[in-house]
Every structure is written in structure tokens, then in C-alpha cells.
Amino acid sequence: KVLFVRTSILQRKFFMMAEFQQRKTAAEQKVNILKKQLEILKKVAEQKKKEVEQAEVINLLEKNARLQEEISKLKTDLRFYEAQNGVKLVSVPSAENVTKKEALSDSNTLPIKDMPASSKKEKTAEPDSTKIKQVLPTDDNKPIDASRILMKIGKIIDVKKHPDADSLYVEQVDLGESNPRTIVSGLVKHVPIESMQNRVAVFVCNLKPAKMRGILSEGMIMCASTPEKVEIIEVPASAAIGDIVTCEGYPGDADVQLNPKKKIWEQVQPDFRVDENGVPGYKGGQFTIAGKTGRFSSPTMKCCPIK
Q1: Alpha-carbon torsion angle 92, 98, 100, 103, nearest 10
Q2: Is a pLDDT exceeding 90 seen at residue 130?
Q3: Cα–Cα nearest to 77, from 218, 217, 200
Q4: Where are the domains of the chain?
């Protein structure tokens, strides 16, 4: 009887130990699962943090690009209006030329005591504010290509027929500047006046303003053109008023105002063409707007000049 009791006690202890062992194993498994889940959560948190940081960086880069574009537009507009208001543009010599001139000047300078008395006297006068010249970078060394042409997206907010010319429209064009520009276009025979009103198009904005039958025109609308037909270049849906249009492969800052004596537009214009797919461009480089998608097009005309 005593042996039976002892055996029962030992069996009970054995079962209890086995149960404790099972519980321990289950607890360890749960702990391992929790550790793995914790690691996964850490990785997810790190990934989300990286994604948030990347999104912030992309957002900042986009803001920076927009600000740079706005600054570029403002600079271009400022230069245009300064030129319109008679501020003279003076070419800035390159640093290399300045260095050479300074070296020559230093080598030819005499000590003050050896200089003629007349040269020692310096005239002092107040600067004439009416003769202040705006100093701008020189364009003499820039290539003659599409980068010299300032093209912008504009909207025709008002259009009328020229009072003294049956073939001309007189348009008021919003180019994102402080005031609309007046632009005269010979499109009466090709585009109905209803299609001109509120039309968004590409305009050349740095031609020297010229009178057309007595009205000063401050730019030119870009059109696919043949002797028989003329069609306004259509812009992508993403284009906004004031956007600067460039040609792929031809970067650079456009001239403030093209010098008519140098015939830059006359040399560049023949290479503006619509290709076989109806896409406008310059020497194969398509019209484009920095940071935006979409394609410029000429809906019905192909393989023809742009004027």
C-alpha cells in the first residue's frame, strides 16, 4: 500500500513536470513569435520613416524647381521691361578679358610723381541718373540656335481685327507678366476670330517690338505654316500661362531682346519645323516645358516650317 501511494505521487509529479515543460515550450515559442513581430514592426517603421523623408526631399526639390522657374520668369520679365523703358544694356566682358586688360593696365601705369600734371587732376562730378546703364551678360559668344529664343505660354484674352489691315488680328496676350502684351498676327484668313479668343499658344517674346500698320507688336504667335495653310501650335494640358518653352538639346538662357542687326531670329527660324508626327521642334529637339509632361502638336499639319 505504501509503495502504491509513492508510485501515485511520483506519477503525479511526472505529469506536472511534463505539463510545466509544455507550458515553458509554448511560452518560448510565443516569445520568439513576439520577437519576430517586433523586428517586422521595426523594419516597417524604418521603411515608413524613409518613405516620409524621401517624400519630403522630393517635395522640397519640386518647390525649389518651381521657385527657380519663377525667378527665371521674373528676371526675364524685368529685363524685357527695362529694355522697353530705355535702359541701355551693356555687355559684361568675360573674366579672362578683364584679367588681360588689368594686366595691360598695370604694366602701362606710371607712378604718380612721373605722371603729367594734367593727368593728376581728376574731374569729380555727380553721376547723371538719366544715363545709368544696366549691366547684363554679353551674348556675343553664345551659339546661334533655339536657346537664344524666348518662348512662353500665353493666353489670348482679347482679340480684334486690325482697324487698318483686313488680314491682321490685334491680340491682348496674358503671358504671366504684370501687364498683357499687344501682339499683331496675320491669321485672319486662316483662323476664325472665335478660335482666337481665349486661345492658349506659344509666343516668341524677345523679338524687338515693331509697328505693324501703326500698332506696336510685342511678340509673335508660333504656327505651323505653308503658303496654303496656317495652324496654331497646340500646347499640352499641363502647360500654364507664363511657362517657358525650350527645345530638347538646346539649353541656355534666352536673350533679353534679340538684336535685329545680328539677324539671330532670321538664322534660327528656318530650323523650327513640325516633324512627320506633327510634333513641333528645332533640329529634331521637341518643344518642352521643364518639369512637365505632355506633347506640343500641330493636329493636321506635318513636315512644314514653324513661323
Answers
A1: 150
A2: no
A3: 218
A4: 1-81, 146-289
